[in-house]
Amino acid sequence: MSGRRCLRTGVRVGLVILGTLLAGNVGALADPDGPWSPAILQADAALARKEYSAALRAANDAYSSALGSTRWDGMVSAGDLYRRIGDHTGLRRSFDAKAKEAYQKAFFRARQQASVEGVLRSLEGYAALGDVQMVGVGLRVAERLAARDPEALADVRAFRSRIDEPNATTEIRN
User: Fold this and answer.
1) Which one in 60, 61, 99, 164 has a CA-CA gap of 20 to 30 Å to 83?
2) Which domain CATH number covers 85?
3) Is the pLDDT of residue 170 over 50?
């Protein structure tokens, strides 16, 4: 096989593999439930029964499952779950730190995937934690990502106006 033919074949194979991976990723992003969903349901059920150790174990399982995927929504769900555990147990400070870590991973994944929705959803978590600085940085990222999409820009503006309202972070936290 000549060098050019070998190169063309290699490029074709690479493009097929890349296309397959991207198609699989898009399908995963379209699926509202992820591998972390059962663990989140377990954690919420344990919280309802006031079994906090079981809730924490399930939350850690949800976090691990979300971490193993490439999706931002799983990390947001894990962050939200850690905040709920903090609210139920009265250990808000400890669990907010874990939630912030999850929101950070969600934010970077969403930014990498150019998902305005993902960036805004992770910023809701930051706003609930009272992290005004990160919300400001994130809004600038969301605006850049949404620059050519009027619908996405409207979502960013709506989010900004909701956050700019007095006591907005308190409303989001509840």
Assistant:
1) 164
2) 1.25.40
3) no
